[in-house]
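Practice problem. Given the sequence and the SMILES for zinc ion, write out the predicted structure.
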Amino acid sequence: MTELLQMPRGTRDILPVEIRLWQFIEETVVRIFELYNYSEIRTPIFEHTDLFTQSLGHTSDIVEKEMYTFNDRKGRSLTLRPEGTASVVRSYLEHSIHKNEALTKVYYRGPMFRYERPQAGRFRQFHQIGVECLGSRNPILDAEMIGLGVHLFDEIGLTELKVMLNSVGCNICRPVIREQLREFIGDNLKHLCEDCNRRFTNNPLRILDCKKPTCQKYTMGIPMFSICQDCGDHFNAVQEYLDAMNITFVVDNHLVRGLEYYTKTTFEIVSPDLGAQNAICGGGRYDKLVQMMGGPDIPAVGFAFGLERAAMLLQQLGIQGKNPPALTLYVAPQGHLATLQGMELLDDFRRANLRADIDVSGRSLKNQLKAANKLGAEYVLIIGEDEAEQKVGLLKNMANGQQQTLAFSDVLNHFFLGTETVQPIQPNQLVLRGMEEVL
Ligand SMILES: [Zn+2]
Ligand SMILES: [Zn+2]
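Answer key:
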């Protein structure tokens, strides 16, 4: 016998029982993003590997050890996208969108791939939703972006969230910040982990991002970054706009993003329910990325969040998403002619936007009714062999057990006009053969 195959490690099936929650989140996301004048963009799932090494930096964890990279049949190096921003910027430049639009507001959604150690809420194929606003340095957009996140999570039912805010400076003040951080760590470097020791030389800011308790102990109490005047003004303006929008936030000078392309504002929206890895969404300004990727000097700001985490958090809070639409009608036919007529009726129902289905098992009426019950059908239309000849069926209300015989031509109307306007045929005019024991 062939052995049953299982899904690859770090992937998962999202079964119909869970998908309603995902659809609820996705539908809310689309609705809210559109309110803020964002449009969707869809980019390929794989890209040239260079795109990610260029944008994320050779020394980033993603490029160093997490990418799914492969050669295609012509030997080209391709990579399953590990995040969404690089592809959006590539597309923005490739289609010269920057030449036609002063400000571009787009959102994306879909699977991303990273070879990481799978754990609760973290998968190798995961799903991200993100927004990018390209074309302006205005701090209004940083604040609006944060407001959009807060609004979105509010709408899906996550209200106990906190906004954390920081500024990681720009090309001018970053060297000063790095030096400030190196001085602060000083002799304690020997107590930090191996990764942090490497970061100390390359990118010391990322030491603040280390999740190891020892490293966190030695970075506690770090003073505010010495950002330049321009970055300081920008940071103050963002806070002023957030205040105006009544968004409460906490300035957290440990908040640096994992990727090097961030400048000025960084932010996270965190949930106390998610434990140590408590960020539900993270983002910030990346004024240098477009240029780094070979484009003109165009600033941008954005954020992204993972659907797995959002779904996990909603489940913890007992939020199940919307209910599936009710199954209005289940047709229980007896015999070939009844089945043919049932198919025609089904088509009418579905075109009238009513969820409907038919029993295809050919089993006894009793078992067909059992199946209808299990599916949660509101009504069952029983069509016996004789009734099929006369083009009538017995409509049974599954909630109260009431039933009435209706001509086929009246069945659909019954659902739109109500029972009063349809003249039901008296049940005693017809005896449905073989049904006495179950009706
Ligand atoms: Zn600066
Ligand atoms: Zn560390």
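Check your answer against the key. Residues 111 and 127 are 4 Å apart (CA to CA).
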